[in-house]
Write a structure and sequence with these properties.
Number of domains: 1
Structural class: alpha+beta
Distance between the termini: 28 Å
Shape: globular
Radius of gyration: 13 Å
Strand content: 5-15%
Largest sheet: 2 strands, parallel
Helix content: 25-40%
């Protein structure tokens, strides 16, 4: 299973088509993207990249 996440969810369909062309079939998208996640006040965690 693959879950694509974009800022607003608008670009997910392009990624889903792209991955499907390489044989992936279990592809999902976070509905309305990360903006909706933040707006719903779901848990968030920041990480430090090296």
């Amino acid at each position: 299973m693959v879950v694509s996440i974009s800022e607003t969810g608008n670009r997910d369909v392009f990624l889903q088509r792209y991955l499907h062309s390489f044989g992936y079939s279990d592809i999902y998208a976070l509905e309305y993207g990360m903006r909706a996640w933040f707006k719903a006040d779901y848990p968030q965690e920041q990480i430090q990249l090296p």
